[in-house]
Design goal:
The complex is a heterodimer of chains A (about 260) and B (about 375). With about 260 residues, chain A is an alpha/beta fold. Helices cover about 40% and strands about 15% of the residues of chain A. Chain A is built from nine helices and ten strands. In chain A, the strands form three sheets. In chain A, strands 5-4-3-10-9 form a five-stranded parallel beta sheet. In chain A, strands 6-7-8 form a three-stranded parallel beta sheet. In chain A, helix 5 packs parallel to helix 6 and helix 7 runs parallel beside helix 9. Chain A starts with a strand and ends in a 20-residue tail after the last helix. The chains are: A alpha/beta (about 260), B alpha/beta (about 375). At the A-B interface, helix 3 of A face helix 5 of B.
């Protein structure tokens, strides 16, 4: 079995998913079940934590689904730490997807506040999964403070543009000692497969599934694409060639 | 130097802008539709008469862009009027000082009664509204009201008189999330005619309110013009100009746009310029094409049929069964309202309508993280 281990948990699925933008909670549940995703992120600000009957949470009660609360909506490290503690208390998990995007327009992560918050949250015993730019140096700095994985973006969140940051993702994957999860921007199963072929350990997909015409079929397509990309990565892709290599005109004289 | 929209605004001339909008051609519209990033020139083309034949195309684009960003969801909110006392004269408003109506400001017990009613309906995002009466309904009253209800709502927005920056800072500290402040019209001379008396007659102070809010660090600012006072196209251009300036200057703040059209009210003013339903659809779509992520909000001023349809065309938040009089839900149903609403359907019916259209109703999308 090709297992992905993050902190103390083992995952057989390398497709992580989100819960936003679906046209109903029932459709979200059906799509997530078909995706076979074992880690599902949910915005703390969207759930009624004091209410045991919260509509989103009710639809995520499956044995294979682990909840990954995220801090969406916070603007700095202080608020993020507060939100993480709230999530731990309300949802009974010390896993946190650390998202600090003070810019509500492009939702781009603040690297400085993220590093500060990550350090504090690790100290407080959280499993920290930070959403960040595809910045290889920041990834190493986060590793040093003890995060359990890094989640660089492929393109602006919700943009469906694919792996616009590929050159930097390759450096991150090459250097990382913790799992690399490509988060944000993945708009098509082919993008997910491409990320896995590069050697990403997992991908996180939300908008592309939730907003498609048929979220259930799209969830299946992503599941298959992630599996295919992973198998291809393990099998080692044949090298890319610009043109056919029929002869060796420059060295033929040696023969 | 402190930044201010006033400096930018003063570089523009109302009549020039109006004539530029009306001179936009089909070629300008096609270029605007073809672009993926659109600027204010594109926006002028999209709100121009030349874009009218392209309304269906604009609607389809708007629908797609909205779903990409906001998903298949609609946010619900509810206004709660705290007071109808007002020291302004506004020619179009039922609360105007010269209107001989009974004035009322809710006390704590009354606020809590209204709150209980709204909570039972499921609301988590509330909009507090007052007139402008600084002695009775000043910053202290508003601050107290926010603290009184903060534990019950995930998200508190207010639409009250413009305040100074330190006042906003205090209210944000108490749990205020967003402030709506509509310029009414960006036509400075006409503005003075519609607001002859009271603090509101100061055009510049109102124009600079979003700057003070931005500096105070508010989470969201709502903009808009009151349609019916002046040419809606020119007013919308200036609103968009304001939006663009604010987005670049206060980049941590979210923005929303509202589309109030003049409604009948006590002592009413007839709209000088009519804005038709197709006009309003064109404007909603034009905003979405200009900006994928600005929130677009529609109140119960609009009719059932109109609302049923535009929730697919770019609108991201709606209210339901709103009362525009203080105590209107429970405490004193018959007190005088600011304007008549049009869509009177109960919340439950709106929710069903949205669900039947494949739209998930979002009640809560905020949390007090401090």
């Amino acid at each position: 079995m090709d297992i992905l281990k993050i902190a103390d948990k083992e995952f057989t699925s390398r497709l992580f998913t989100g819960t936003g933008k679906f046209s109903s909670s029932q459709l979200m549940e059906d799509a997530l079940v078909v995706s076979e995703s074992e880690l599902v992120t949910v915005a703390l600000k969207r759930v009624e934590v004091s209410d045991k009957k919260d509509d989103i949470l009710i639809h995520l009660q499956h044995p294979q689904i682990n909840l990954l609360p995220n801090t969406s909506g916070v603007r700095d490290a202080k608020e993020a730490v507060f939100a993480a503690q709230m999530a731990r208390e309300a949802l009974g998990t010390n896993w946190i997807k650390l998202e600090i995007h003070p810019d509500p327009k492009y939702l781009l992560p603040d690297p400085i506040e993220t590093l500060k918050a990550a350090e504090e949250l690790v100290r407080l015993g959280f499993v920290v999964m930070p959403y960040i730019h595809a910045d290889p140096v920041l990834c190493k700095r986060l590793e040093e403070v003890g995060v359990q994985c890094v989640m660089p973006l492929g393109a602006p969140i919700g943009s469906n543009k694919g792996l616009k940051t590929q050159d930097f993702l390759e450096i991150i994957i090459d250097q990382s000692t913790v799992p690399v999860i490509v988060d944000a921007g993945i708009g098509a199963p082919s993008h997910a497969a491409a990320a896995m072929e590069l050697g990403a350990d997992a991908v996180l997909v939300n908008t592309a599934i939730a907003v498609s015409q048929n979220p259930i079929a799209m969830a299946k397509a992503f599941r298959m694409a992630v599996e295919a990309g992973r198998i291809a990565y393990k099998a080692k892709l044949a090298p890319v060639k610009q043109h056919a290599e029929a002869s060796s005109p420059l060295t033929a004289f040696l023969d | 130097m402190t930044k201010s929209f006033k400096n930018i605004f003063e570089q523009y001339n109302w009549d020039t802008i109006t004539s530029e909008i009306y001179q936009k051609t089909e070629a300008d519209v096609l270029r605007a539709l073809g672009n993926t990033k659109r600027d204010l020139e594109d926006f002028k083309a999209l709100i121009s008469p030349a874009a009218k034949p392209y309304l269906e195309q604009m609607a389809q684009l708007s629908n797609r862009l909205t779903k990409k960003r906001f998903g298949n969801t609609i946010q619900m909110y509810i206004p709660m009027y705290l007071s109808n006392e007002c020291q302004n004269i506004c020619t179009y408003c039922g609360f105007s000082m010269t209107n001989k109506i009974p004035r009322r400001t809710l006390n704590d017990a009354e606020i809590l009664k209204e709150v209980a009613f709204l909570k039972a309906k499921g609301y988590e995002h509330i909009l507090l509204v007052t007139g402008e009466a600084n002695k009775t309904v000043g910053v202290d009253y508003i601050n107290h009201a926010i603290q009184l209800i903060k534990g019950q709502f995930a998200n508190i927005t207010m639409e009250v008189q413009p305040l100074d920056q330190p006042d906003y800072e205090q209210l944000i500290d108490s749990g205020l999330y967003a402030v709506l402040v509509y310029q009414e019209t960006y036509h400075k001379e006409e503005y003075k005619k519609h607001h002859p008396k009271g603090k509101k007659s100061n055009f510049d102070y109102r124009l600079e309110t979003p700057d003070r809010l931005g500096r105070a660090g508010v989470h969201k600012i709502g903009l808009g013009a009151l349609f019916g006072l002046e040419d809606w196209r020119a007013d919308s251009f200036f609103t968009a100009l304001h939006l663009r300036y604010l987005q670049k200057t206060y980049w941590k703040t979210k923005y929303s746009i509202s589309f109030p059209r003049l409604r009948p009210h006590s002592g009413g003013l007839e709209p000088k310029v009519e804005m038709t339903d197709p006009d309003l659809v064109q404007l909603i779509c034009a905003y979405r094409l200009l900006d994928e992520d600005v929130e677009l909000s529609l109140s119960t001023r609009e009719s059932e049929v109109f609302r049923n349809n535009v929730v697919q065309l770019g609108i991201t938040s709606v209210s339901a069964e709103s009362k525009t009089n203080p105590g209107g839900y429970v405490v004193e149903k018959q007190s005088l309202e600011q304007f008549e609403i049009s869509d009177e359907r109960p919340t439950e019916e709106i929710v069903t309508m949205l669900k039947n259209q494949g739209l998930e109703v979002v009640w809560k999308d905020w949390e007090h993280f401090s």
